[in-house]
Design goal:
The structure is a single chain. By secondary structure, the protein is α/β, with parallel strands linked by helices. The chain has a single domain (3-129), classed as Glutaredoxin (3-Layer(aba) Sandwich), CATH 3.40.30. It has helices at residues 3-8, 11-18, 30-39, 55-67, 85-95, 126-129, and strands at residues 25-26, 45-50, 75-80, 103-108, 111-117. The protein has a 5-stranded mixed β-sheet, sandwiched between helices.
């Protein structure tokens, strides 16, 4: 891909490529939040909230995916909080965590086991929370 292709691609197109390393389930509607709460009773759930307008989000997501230990038995949920800001606010309110971006939230039995943001997001520590 040439320099001009990179310059004129949308941030959303760049983000789509970056989120393909993990089988993320996109959070796009209220029902997705209810579903992940229920799912968290079966296995841990990881929510990654991401801003398509933020370079730090892009860097943090790339590092998270590259550092993620293999064979974790968790479900991964991804939220584009620019496009779905009201759902992001719902997650913050529902789980009693401050809205941040980028943000990682780990749930078990619909309760927050861990949450972090920005440079504190560390995939290598994920096994400690699940």
């Amino acid at each position: 891909m040439g320099l001009f292709d990179k310059m004129f691609r949308s941030e959303r197109d760049v983000a789509k490529e970056e989120i393909e390393r993990i089988p993320w389930v996109n959070i796009t509607e209220q029902q997705d939040i209810e579903d992940l709460k229920k799912r968290s009773f079966e296995k841990p759930v990881v929510i990654f909230k991401y801003s398509t307008r933020c370079g730090i989000s892009r860097i943090t997501l790339r590092k998270f995916e590259n550092d993620l230990p293999e064979n974790l038995d968790v479900d991964f949920y991804f939220m584009d909080l620019v496009k779905y800001r009201s759902l992001s606010n719902e997650i913050a309110e529902s789980f009693k965590v401050r809205h941040e971006s980028p943000q990682l939230i780990v749930l078990k039995e619909a309760k927050v086991q861990h949450h972090s943001s920005h440079q504190d997001i560390n995939a290598k520590q994920l096994p400690d929370y699940i």
